[in-house]
Write a structure and sequence with these properties.
heterodimer, A: 402 residues, mainly alpha, 2 domains, two-stranded antiparallel ribbon, 14 helices, B: mainly alpha, Four Helix Bundle (Hemerythrin (Met), subunit A), extended
């Protein structure tokens, strides 16, 4: 639902005056922040993985090798840009941007700060203007995230197709199947959050968590776990990196890409990682929520808490990569369709049932027990059906091929 | 401002639709389709149907066209098609005829309704710009929910059931049929030469195959 503040903001917006300048400054700031965070994230990932593998990692460019990404970027910039003869030239050149632009737009709905404590609505005063510490807070809110992650698939898919070569095509077909499958689980676990907050706006979602409990607790831990797994798969990160499984597909969808175009894919990928961590924090961990320690710099604390929480999840993603082996393709599909989607659906129904019960004054313990036992029964039936189908298939294969 | 955005969106929609028709490569046609769908999403935004705009992008651009592309790529029809050949005779004149008929119907409809006058809303409780108790404008999500899950809940459930039936039907049709009707695979035939006469009984060729091995 649209808040009064938003309405006033839209109606009073003056396209000719300082409002526009203010908006442009905000866009540039968020843009720069994302780019810098991507640079640091690549370095962070390499450092943490090398620590976990008992290596030193990058340590030459700058203190602790912190400028390594910058050096790599400059190197890529000066490399030769190849376009395969077999490629569909226009689509080949378009694909990296189709990856990058959704990655940029996704971050615009994340509130990175602002005081939500004591009934505050997360707005801050800068140069006499009241604004939210997020680029936009559209009425469709979090759906922007789903829409953009849906569009990000096109970049990967068309890159693989337009390369005119089989490994990239295989990589992009895998990517499409994987991302479309896990988007369903992602959306269903998101629905649980929306049920709790009653609004699509990210600002309202944070607000609701500051007033009550963080969603990771108030929804039970299940939606968060499903979101984390589905999010990792959506990012094509290990252990779900079949899209660019080096051992099987050379480099996956971007095999034929080089120079700047390759770096655009690389940038989009890491930007998506940062954004996904920020979205998880916003949806389940109260966004910028946290104690205000000294009132003199009260604007600083929410931003600090937000960034600390994001770093925790960035570390989690790196940790996944360093410890978990890659899933096989059928395991990937089984996990998505037979476990995550039913679990997200059941949990959503359970939460809805609890809400209905609260309104109708039913016994909450009874709802919980009945709900969970029905859930267990249905899951048992599902697994039994899957097992029987697998056995029947194995048997018929045996009959056919002896 | 609104008129300007509408103009840009309309040009995007029209250019995209013409592109879908004229593109020789099916993948390019699908890309033009995405462009059209995007333009329509912007048109939704202009009339403040934010939820519809988001759903338009998520469902149509983010899932349906992806599946189109998936099929195009997997079936390998992504080469330029020869448009001079008419696969079904008389298909083209009929297409022009039905297109013209739809255009005529739309024009006739536009003539009967005065576009300046807003459509009459019999019930003020269902007006699009109504406000709730606290004076906030009721969002289009809530309005949609009230309509779909309140007034038309039966139709909604039946549609859901229909879709489920369609999915189950598709899965059943895509399954391998085991039993008497299944022809023996070529590989099994090649492995056991001279056993064609027993192929209508599904237990025998397997035994024979094992004997051969």
């Amino acid at each position: 639902m649209m808040t009064i503040a938003q309405q006033a903001y839209l109606e009073d917006f003056d396209w000719t005056s300082l409002d526009l300048l203010f908006l442009v400054v905000k866009v540039v700031l968020i843009f720069t922040m994302l780019l810098v965070s991507v640079m640091l994230m690549v370095w962070f990932e390499r450092k943490v993985v090398s620590d976990m593998q008992n290596r030193i990692g990058p340590d030459v460019a700058g203190p602790w090798g912190i400028l390594q990404t910058l050096a790599d970027g400059i190197k890529l910039f000066f490399k030769e840009d190849l376009t395969p003869d077999n490629s569909d030239r226009f689509v080949f050149k378009l694909a990296p941007y189709l990856s990058l632009i959704p990655a940029f737009l996704m971050f615009s709905i994340v509130p990175i700060g602002g005081n939500f404590q004591d009934g505050g609505d997360g707005s801050v005063e800068i140069f006499g203007r009241t604004t939210f510490l997020q680029l936009v807070d559209p009425p469709m809110g979090i759906l922007v995230f789903l829409a953009m992650s849906g569009l990000g698939i096109y970049g990967v898919m068309l890159a693989g197709w337009s390369s005119g070569s089989k490994y990239p095509l295989l990589g992009s077909v895998r990517a499409t199947a994987q991302m479309v499958s896990y988007e369903a689980a992602l959306g269903l676990s998101l629905a649980a959050v929306l049920l709790e907050s009653g609004s699509l706006s990210t600002n309202q979602i944070v607000q609701e968590q500051v007033d009550g409990y963080w969603n990771v607790l108030s929804l039970g831990i299940i939606p968060f776990i499903i979101f984390l797994i589905a999010g990792t798969a959506e990012l094509n990160r290990p252990p779900f990196d079949l899209v660019e499984a080096e051992q099987e597909l050379v480099g996956g969808f971007h095999t034929e890409y080089s120079s700047l175009r390759f770096s655009l894919f690389f940038l989009a990928e890491f930007m998506n990682v940062v954004t996904m961590a920020a979205i998880i924090v916003t949806l389940f961990f109260g966004g910028p929520d946290g104690p205000i320690l000294w009132d003199t710099i009260s604007w600083f604390w929410p931003i600090l808490w937000f960034f600390l929480k994001v770093v925790v999840f960035l570390f989690t993603f790196v940790w996944f990569r360093a410890t978990l082996p890659r899933l096989r393709y059928d395991q990937l599909m089984d996990l998505g369709w037979k476990i995550l989607i039913p679990a997200a659906l059941f949990w959503f129904l359970l939460l809805a049932g609890i809400r209905v019960g609260r309104d109708a004054d039913w016994n909450p313990a009874a709802i919980l027990i009945i709900g969970i036992s029905v859930m267990t029964l249905l899951f048992a039936a599902l697994f039994r059906a899957v097992r029987m189908a697998q056995e029947a298939r194995a048997e018929s294969d045996l009959v056919e091929y002896g | 401002m609104q008129e300007f955005v509408f103009l840009v969106a309309a040009i995007i929609v029209l250019a995209g639709s013409v592109g879908v028709l004229l593109a020789k490569n099916p993948v390019h046609a699908a890309l033009f389709l995405i462009q059209t769908l995007f333009g329509v999403a912007v048109l939704f935004l202009i009339v403040e149907a934010h939820f519809l705009a988001a759903i338009q992008v998520i469902v149509y651009a983010g899932a349906i066209v992806i599946l189109f592309l998936f099929v195009i790529m997997l079936l390998g029809v992504d080469k330029s098609e020869d448009l001079s050949v008419d696969p079904i005779v008389g298909q083209r004149p009929l297409a022009f005829l039905s297109g013209g008929a739809i255009l005529g119907l739309l024009l006739a409809l536009l003539n009967t309704v005065d576009p300046i006058e807003p459509l009459p809303s019999a019930d003020p409780a269902r007006a699009l710009d109504r406000t709730d108790a606290s004076g906030q404008r009721v969002a289009d999500v809530n309005q949609l929910a009230e309509t779909i899950f309140g007034e038309h809940v039966l139709a909604f459930e039946i549609t859901g059931l229909l879709l489920t039936v369609a999915v189950v039907g598709a899965v059943v049709m895509a399954r391998k049929i085991s039993g008497d009707l299944q022809p023996v695979p070529e590989s099994a035939l090649a492995a056991s030469v001279g056993l064609e006469e027993t192929s209508d009984d599904d237990a025998e060729p397997a035994d024979a195959g094992e004997g051969d091995a």
